[in-house]
Amino acid sequence: MFILALESRKTLGMEVWNMAQLKLGPYTVEVSNTDRALFPDDGITKGDLIEYYRRIADALLPHMRERPLNMQRFPRGTLDEGFWQQDMPDYFPEWMERVTVQREEGGRVTHVVCNNAATLVYLANQACITQHIWLSRRDQLRNPDRMVFDLDLSEEDFGSVVLAAQALKGLLEEMDVAPFVMTTGSRGLHLVVPLDGSADFPTVKAFAQNVASVLVSRHPRDLTIEQRKGRRGGRVFVDTLRNSYGQTMVAPYSVRAKPGAPVATPIGWNELSDGKMHSQRYTLQNIFLRLGQRDDPWAQMSQYAASLVNPGAVWRRWQAKRGGLESSRPASSARLT
Fold this sequence. Notes:
Elements: E1 2-11, E2 15-24, E3 27-31, E4 37-39, E5 44-45, H1 46-64, E6 68-73, E7 83-85, E8 98-102, E9 108-113, H2 117-125, E10 128-134, E11 146-152, H3 158-174, E12 180-183, E13 189-194, H4 201-218, E14 223-224, E15 236-239, E16 248-250, E17 265-267, H5 287-293, H6 311-321
Parallel strand pairs: 14-15
Antiparallel strand pairs: 1-2, 2-3, 4-5, 6-7, 6-9, 6-10, 8-9, 10-16, 11-13, 11-15, 12-13, 12-17
């Protein structure tokens, strides 16, 4: 990175504006208002967010590349509600990559595609604190290469989410499917299964629903697939709803708009047994210490991509292993063959 210009001035005798042009590869990004507090209680400014995304780019971009993204922006800081934005504004630079997609409900929308550090820095300058990415890439929008299980706390008991994650890992491994785990930086955990992109969203979603149903049938007192919070009864919600066209998950290493600026962080399965682990353990201020001590646990996840083009065969192999003793309890939308 090269700083080409730097300027400071006062507006109305109160607000300090810092402006700079940053050279990132072949692109020049102008940043401004770097002293603006985005996390006022933590002393974290927009300049800190920009520098974070510049530094984290090498770890983050492999997980984000070629995916449409939704922006969660907080121009007035995290004490304000902020807003979600899907459509790429007209004023974004021409060099920024994009993809126009068909909405399920009709119409079209153009999403940012973040393939380089310059785009990350530009988005940070737009006070985009959190990026949420599609489960598919722009060359195969209707065929995901990720399947996601969102394990959400019903009560403030992260230990119950850890137990749920370990149980789900065991079930998926029975099916010869390799799950990876991430703290969300919010309340729970994401379990992510890499796919080869051969199956479409309805097939993947039905498979995920079936897996969740089996898991809940094994642990009905602890887990639920009940969408209404009032009926969960303190159980961990096994959420498979993200496995649909146009739905998103928080990008790995994305900052969350919560006190302390927690970061969604891929972790190793052995780390879940650490009594200090919780969903907001890693933050903008300590994540680089972690990355300096260990490699990204998701770096090689694509090597474990599963095929769900014939989910019925996966279920039959699993049932054969168990001697037909356990029902898959397929969801009504499942297309098993």
